[in-house]
C-alpha cells in the first residue's frame, strides 16, 4: 500500500514539473519529455504495475459490489459474532435452508395429494349419471354399515373405492353411503337396492348384491353379468 501511494505521489510530481517546463518553453530540461506538443511519460516499470493493479482492484470492486451489499444485509439480520440456538451463523444458515426445503416438500406433497383425491372423486360413481358395471352376488351377513342382512333382502355392497372415498372417519357404520338406495336395471327388469356393505373385490362401478336380488335380474348360474344402475334421490354428495 505504501509503495502504491509513493507511485501516485511521484506521478503527480512528474506531471506538475512537466507542465511547468512546457509553460516555460524549456522541455529539454526533462529528459523523459519527448516533444513540446505531446506530453509523454516514461514511468518506471514498478510504478506502471502498481497503477495497473489499482485499476484492476477497482474493476473487481465493481463486480463484487452486489455480493458485498448482500453480505451487509445478512450481517445486519444475523450478525456473525452471535450464536443462534447454540450454533454458529453458518450452521444456522444450513438449518434454515434445510427447513425451507422440508416445508416446500410438505406443501408440494399436500397439493399433489389433494389434486389426486379430487381427480379420483371425479372418476367415481357419485353423481346423478347412469353407470354400467358388473353385477355379482354374495352371501350377506353383518355388513360394513353395521346392518345384518339375509339372502332375500334387496341389499347391495358398493365398491370399496367409492365407499372409502366418502368416509368421514374410522367407523364404517357412519359412512354417508350407508342406507342410500340405487336402482339396477338389466334386460327390462329393475330392482331398488339399499347400501349395507363394502365390496373389496369390486371396481368403482361394480355392484355386489344378495342372491335373491341377483335372481330378479339374471340367472344365478351366470355368476357375473353386466348391469346399469343409478342413485335414487337424494344422490350422494361428492
Question: Can you put this structure into words, describing what you see?
Answer:
The protein is α/β, with parallel strands linked by helices and 238 residues long. The chain folds into 3 domains: 2-63, no CATH class; 83-121; 131-231, Barwin-like endoglucanases (Beta Barrel). It is 42% helix and 16% strand. The protein has 6 helices and 6 strands; from the N terminus they run H-H-H-H-E-E-H-E-E-E-H-E. A hairpin with a 2-residue loop joins strand 3 (181-186) and strand 4. Helix 1 packs across helix 2. The longest helix is centred in the middle third of the chain and has 35 residues, at 89-123. The radius of gyration is 44 Å and the shape is rod-shaped. The two termini are 78 Å apart.
Can you tell me the CATH topology of the largest domain?
Answer: Barwin-like endoglucanases
CATH architecture of the largest domain: Beta Barrel
Strand residues, percent? 15-25%
Largest sheet: 6 strands, mixed, barrel
Give the count of helical stretches.
6
Radius of gyration: 44 Å
* Secondary-structure content class: alpha/beta
| Helix share bin | 40-55%
Topology order in helix (H) and strand (E) letters: HHHHEEHEEEHE
* Annotated CATH homologous superfamily of the largest domain: RlpA-like domain
What's the total number of strands?
6
Question: Uncertain regions: pLDDT < 50 for 5+ in a row?
Answer: 2-7, 32-43
Strand order, main sheet: write it out. 1-5-2-4-3-6
The average pLDDT is: 78
Distance between the termini: 78 Å
Tell me the count of domains. 3
* CATH C-level category of the largest domain: Mainly Beta
Shape: rod-shaped
Keywords: Membrane, Signal, Transmembrane, Transmembrane helix
Organism: Letharia columbiana
InterPro entries: Expansin_CellWall, RlpA-like_sf
Protein name: RlpA-like protein double-psi beta-barrel domain-containing protein
Amino acid at each position: 500500500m505504501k509503495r502504491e501511494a509513493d507511485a501516485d505521489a511521484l506521478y503527480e510530481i512528474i506531471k506538475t514539473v512537466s507542465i511547468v517546463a512546457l509553460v516555460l518553453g524549456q522541455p529539454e530540461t526533462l529528459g523523459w519529455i519527448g516533444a513540446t506538443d505531446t506530453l509523454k511519460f516514461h514511468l518506471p516499470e514498478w510504478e506502471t504495475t502498481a497503477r495497473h493493479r489499482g485499476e484492476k482492484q477497482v474493476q473487481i470492486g465493481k463486480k463484487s459490489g452486489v455480493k458485498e451489499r448482500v453480505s451487509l444485509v445478512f450481517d445486519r439480520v444475523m450478525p456473525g459474532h452471535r450464536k443462534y440456538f447454540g450454533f454458529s451463523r453458518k450452521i444456522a444458515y444450513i438449518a434454515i435452508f434445510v427447513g425451507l426445503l422440508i416445508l416446500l416438500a410438505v406443501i408440494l406433497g399436500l397439493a399433489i395429494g389433494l389434486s389426486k383425491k379430487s381427480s379420483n372423486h371425479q372418476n367415481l360413481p357419485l353423481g346423478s349419471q347412469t353407470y354400467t358395471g358388473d353385477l355379482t352376488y354374495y352371501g350377506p351377513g353383518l355388513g360394513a354399515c353395521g346392518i345384518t342382512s339375509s339372502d332375500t333382502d334387496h341389499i347391495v355392497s358398493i365398491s370399496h373405492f367409492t365407499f372409502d372415498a366418502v368416509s368421514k372417519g374410522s367407523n364404517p357404520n357412519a359412512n354417508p353411503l350407508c342406507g342410500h338406495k340405487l336402482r339396477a336395471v338389466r334386460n327390462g327388469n329393475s330392482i331398488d337396492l339399499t347400501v349395507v356393505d363394502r365390496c373389496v373385490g369390486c371396481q368403482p362401478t361394480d355392484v355386489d348384491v344378495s342372491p335373491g336380488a341377483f335372481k330378479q335380474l339374471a340367472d344365478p348360474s351366470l355368476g357375473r353379468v353386466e348391469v346399469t344402475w343409478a342413485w335414487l334421490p337424494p344422490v350422494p354428495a361428492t
